[in-house]
Design goal:
Elements lengths: L14 E5 L6 H17 L4 E4 L18 H13 L3 E5 L6 H5 L4 E4 L7 H9 L3 E5 L10 H8 L6 E5 L2 E2 L5 E2 L3 H7 L5 E4 L5 E2 L8 E2 L4 H11 L3 E7 L13 E2 L3 H24 L6
Parallel strand pairs: 1-2, 1-12, 2-3, 3-4, 4-5, 5-6, 6-9, 9-12, 12-13
Antiparallel strand pairs: 7-8, 10-11
Helix pairs in contact: 4-5, 7-8
């Protein structure tokens, strides 16, 4: 597997970030990574494995958070040794340097996207930094978070849309926002699974509407994003985090095939428009 480069987010192929929400076990992440990587390769997607070592913003204190920093990084290092590109969340500035020794992309959770110290420390690692746009942040304002990372001299910033708060326990995706975010000059990724989440909508956990994953992802690709983020699980009903809005592993091949074909159609349409500008009188 080729290691991910920032330039991959500016290429014509869509980048895929995918994996279970949280590290459930060492065996599970290796099994999921192997299967997803094979599917991604078959459909022509540069692939980055995603799983969190800690879910620090779970709805309830009783919910599973993950193996923690030390054990989580040990497990991810094993994935790295097998050739995977990796992305994982950091929640505190003090975690940035240690996590950067293992993963290729540091992810800033949506709830923390305005935390200046966190953004600065992520930037100083020199790794790619994926900033999730907060549910409370306007698309034209997320550039300030990116600029905080860039102020360290690290301009390898990716912006990810994951839906905006729409009243209580609901999210909505404004496709105009994808273009507005792209106007910053930073690559934009669409998070297709968190965008269908129903935050805290199932009592002590979040619910979800996974039937809308493919329609929203299709629309985002038509708009022109550079990558797709999707949490994938082989048994969503028993996932330890975010199973209600995860894409079932069995659906991934057809899902990626559709997105690839849509992306190819968009590129062809863009090329045609460039070569055949409208005639004006």
């Amino acid at each position: 597997m080729a290691m991910i480069q920032f330039a991959d987010f500016k290429a014509q192929e869509l980048v895929l970030m995918a994996g279970p929400c949280v590290i459930e076990s060492e065996e599970h992440v290796h099994r999921m990574g192997k299967t997803i990587a094979a599917i991604a390769a078959a459909e022509g997607f540069p692939y980055i494995f995603k799983a969190s070592f800690d879910k620090a913003n779970r709805t309830s204190a009783n919910n599973f958070r993950g193996p923690g920093l030390t054990e989580g990084l040990r497990i991810l290092a094993g994935m790295k040794a097998e050739g995977y590109s990796l992305v994982t969340d950091i929640h505190e500035a003090s975690q940035a340097a240690a996590v950067a020794e293992v993963v290729d992309i540091l992810q800033i959770p949506a709830f923390l996207c305005r935390q200046t110290d966190l953004l600065h420390e992520a930037g100083r690692t020199g790794r790619i930094v994926n900033v999730k746009k907060g549910q409370f942040v306007a698309p034209h304002d997320i550039r300030h978070a990116a600029d905080k990372v860039a102020s360290t001299g690290n301009h390898q910033v990716v912006l990810t849309e994951r839906g905006s708060s729409f009243g209580y326990n609901n999210l909505v995706v404004d496709m105009r926002g994808l273009r507005i975010m792209a106007d910053t000059g930073y690559p934009v990724v669409f998070d297709a699974t968190h965008s269908v989440q129903i935050p805290s909508g199932a009592g002590g956990t979040s619910g979800g509407q996974p039937r809308f994953i493919e329609p929203l992802a299709s629309a985002a690709v038509a708009v022109g994003v550079k990558g797709i983020f999707v949490e994938v699980h082989d048994d969503p009903a028993h996932a330890l985090s975010d199973g209600a809005n995860a894409l079932h592993l069995d659906l991934l091949p057809a899902f990626l095939r559709r997105l690839r074909l849509l992306n190819e159609a968009r590129l062809a349409a863009d090329s045609f428009s460039t070569q055949n500008p409208p005639v004006t009188s």
